[in-house]
Amino acid sequence: ITARIKRTLPVRGPQAPTLSELMRWYCLNTNTHGCRRIVVSRGRLRRFIWILLTLSAVGLILWQCAELLLNYYSASVSVTVQFQKLPFPAVTICNINPYKYSSMKDYLSELDKETKKALETFYGFSEGKSKVRRSVDERNSTGSEFFKQIPLLKFEDFSRTVIDLHSGQKRKIEGSVFHKDSSIVNSGDSNDIIGFQLCDANNSSDCALYTFSSGVNAIQEWYKLHYMNIMAQIPLETKEKASYSADDLILTCFFDGLSCDKRHFTRFHHPLHGNCYTFNSGENGTILSTSTGGSEYGLQVVLYIDEADYNPFLVTSTGAKIIVHDQNEYPFIEDIGTEIETAAATSIGMHFTRSRKLSKPYSDCTETGADIPVENLYNKSYSLQICLHSCFQKAMVDSCGCAQYAQPLPPGAEYCNYKKNPNWMYCYYRLHEKFVKEQLGCQQICKDACSFKEWALTTSIAQWPSTVSEDWMLRVLSWDKGQKLNKKLNKTDLANLMVFYKDLNERFISENPANTLVILLSNFGGQLGLWMSCSVVCVIEIVEVFLIDSLSIVMRRQWQKAKKWWNDRKRERLGKAPQAGDLERQGHDNPVCIDEDLPTFNTALRLPLPQDSPLPRTPPPNYSTLRLETAFTEQLPDTLEAGQH
């Protein structure tokens, strides 16, 4: 009986043999209303309407859930303001002139001669009649070979006809033209352009022309190019001695109303700014703090600038540069430094802000920079600027074979110079051009830091010292300077600097997830219940039917086909004809769908009858069993009397 039931009854539910039967069973038994109405509705129009409504509801659910997922990775910004005792930041101070000109004059003598010659040739500038003018032959014999290879050029009428500074002759040049500025400030004819030509040392036909519409910019850029080459060959100890000491730079110092001195400053050597000094660097493990706002409770220093010992071609302004930064950050003076004017009191008020962004998947920032494939060359905490400079320096070493002077040295590399790397200038300019155009890949690799500190600065300037106090203040400051100076100080050699908190309000800006996982799941449940009256159980049911059961049916059919093909192939080899019992089986006759449950009474009644067997009938009752029989052999006397009456 069990075998006949399994072989004959149609199969429904998860073990249905076809996908259409599985889908019909699902629509009749699912808890979602729309799917059931598609099957039970009568008439094509009504069924079409229910199909359209159900598909629309599914589309709306998918759309709303996609919006929820996108909003899940969004963040809200919160700002918290606290009033408390604040740590004082590190303040780095540099003289705009990196080295004393008197100490570096011997190293720069040839370069200065070439620069003066350019001024005389192009602009008729002369330092005075007392100096004897050299002949052309003498001028050509002096100077290094590199000045002959890369001289300053004067372009006439935007053409490729130039006047060579070194030879004084006109010639035609070739190469791509790069305009380094858009300024039209000029000395002399407005059509004259100053520049220089850089060529590949390995291919003299591959050249680039760098032009400047301002002669000042052209001469300064050309001077700095050769200046970096010369400085790269000077030992670090020599450069530190030629720069300014703490005693030279700092005259007076006060912090939080108390006196301070050079012991509170930490020296570090910057390639472009010489010796710089950082107040409150935290190297000794102690970070100063302040509990009162205002100019009287910050840092107050008087700086000695010594304008008379400035390099006339390297810098054209007088004063100092400062930068306010965290103790773990590198001070990029050349990028974001603030210039301090001489003969003036500069007040810098600060507002402190701490910011923190969420990392992936909310934003593309990095926590520590460990996931950035760029080596940190600055030995400080990660920042976007450190990554960009380190990336460029690495590309410089890989492409040019040496390191650029303005940035730290990678391990095993050395700074570029003419003698060892005659092609480095051309390589550097080409590489820098790619870097600016974001073709080097550094801007794509480097990311912002997720957490950082920022001090918003407000600068105000006043004349200092005043006219009435100038005399006595300069005398006292000269006396404080002691025997190191043999002259009276001038106010143009001094700068007064004050750095302080305007208030003690610490602003903390943070990003928080706009949605949590609980809110996301609640929103999903609301959308499913609103559009399809569906719950988590319905979702599990959908996954079971449309993924597990559907896949099982497909695999079962493939298995049957493969088995049938294998059996047919075996019969062909043996030469046997196919038998009726070997035909493809359906329903419960499928061996895959073996179920060991016993048949019930209802399933037994549904069995079909054999064709040759008569219809079974219910047997007639045995009427003899309906006859009444008494249990007594004789009738009782009292029943007889009742019968007689």
Automatic annotation (TrEMBL):
Coiled coil: none annotated. GO terms for molecular function: ligand-gated sodium channel activity. The chain crosses the membrane at residues 48-73. Its main location: membrane. PROSITE patterns: ASC. It is a multi-pass membrane protein. GO terms for cellular component: apical plasma membrane; sodium channel complex. Keywords: Cell membrane, Disulfide bond, Ion channel, Ion transport, Membrane, Sodium, Sodium channel, Sodium transport, Transmembrane, Transmembrane helix, Transport. It catalyses: Na(+)(in) = Na(+)(out). It is found in: Apical cell membrane. Belongs to the amiloride-sensitive sodium channel (TC 1.A.6) family. SCNN1G subfamily. This is SCNNG protein. It comes from Baryphthengus martii. The lineage of its organism: Eukaryota, Metazoa, Chordata, Craniata, Vertebrata.
